[in-house]
Amino acid sequence: MASRFLFVTLFALVISQAFGSDPSQLQDFCVAEMNPQVFVNGVVCKNPNAVTANDFFFPGLDKAGNTNNSLGSNVTAVAVNNLPGLNTLGISFARLDFAPGGLVPPHYHPRATEILVVIEGTLEVVFVSSTNNQLFKKILNKGDVYVFPQGLIHFQFNRGWTNAVAFSGLSSQNPGVVFVANAVFGSNPPISDDVLAKAFKLDKKTIDWLQAQFTSGN
Predict the structure, then answer these.
(1) Residues 81-93: what's their mean pLDDT?
(2) Are 164 and 136 in contact (CB under 8 A)?
(3) Please, what is the average pLDDT of the chain?
(4) Can you list the GO cellular component terms from the UniProt entry (predicted)?
(5) Within a 10 A sphere around the Cβ of 48, how many other Cβ atoms?
(6) Is 154 annotated as a binding residue?
(7) Given 53, 72, 146, 167, which is the most exposed site by the fewest CB atoms within 10 A?
């Protein structure tokens, strides 16, 4: 267990240097003020005199996330909203848990490249490029690492018969995540079914059914 978390820690340090895309800090740290009175591009700095060690601390990634849901997966994200010391440092982190058959569905991160390492089990990982919609797929086993370029649609799927665990580092304090199906069929207010029927070459009845699957109540 100790060697596993040492590996994960070193992994996080490497990606922070290799993939950081947020603006560099202009001081040692700029801990996020979680209740700012002004809005800026990013997060306002907390008064340095009020900063404590807990501002740089997040516990619990040794514990499995709850995969008892329709997707059979759980993502425990560590970003600036729950680890304020990440502000301006250009990095965030996540633990991904998968039940057998579990899926993190097609999505993309508008502000970050993602690098993933498998800790337990086996994962099928896929991304699709913007050039001719070329699909890149790989089966990852324990200790394997894979990179998902910024802004490209990707997913992770546990095709195995046992649970799988992975850790991801992302090159932004606030990478954002857009789940493709939710955005297209579950937007609020909804996209016109005329538009979606034409775009997906489906009849409006089918589109209406798809939209019903992604409303807030489902």
Answers:
(1) 93
(2) no
(3) 89
(4) apoplast
(5) 11
(6) yes
(7) 53
pTM reported for the whole predicted model? 0.85
109 is known to lie in a ligand binding site = yes
Tell me if residue 128 falls in helix, strand or coil.
strand
- The tokens for 119 are 């800790």
CB distance 92 to 129 below 8 Å: no
Q: Is 107 annotated as a binding residue?
A: yes
CB-based contacts of 162: which residues, under 8 Å, 6+ apart? 100, 120, 121
Q: What is the pLDDT of residue 35?
A: 76
Beta-carbon contacts of residue 14 (< 8 Å; ≥ 6 apart): none
Which element (helix H / strand E) includes 85?
none
SS3 171: coil
Mean pLDDT of the 91-104 span = 98
Q: Which residues of 71-81 are buried (b: 16+ CB within 10 A; e: fewer)?
A: ebbbbbbbbbe
Amino acid (1-letter code) at residue 8: V
120 annotated ligand binder = no
Give the residue carrying structure tokens 């501002």: 55
Binned at pLDDT 50, 70 and 90, residue 11 comes out as low
Report residue 215 CA to chain centroid gap. Answer: 22
Mean pLDDT is lowest, of 40-44, 154-158, 184-188, for 40-44
Beta-carbon count within 10 A of 212 CB: 13
C-alpha closest to that of 40 among 51, 32, 52, 49: 32
Q: Look at phi and psi of residue 133 and say left if phi exceeds 0, alpha if psi is from -120 to 50, else beta.
A: left
DSSP, res 86: G
Q: Does residue 26 or residue 84 have the better pLDDT?
A: 84
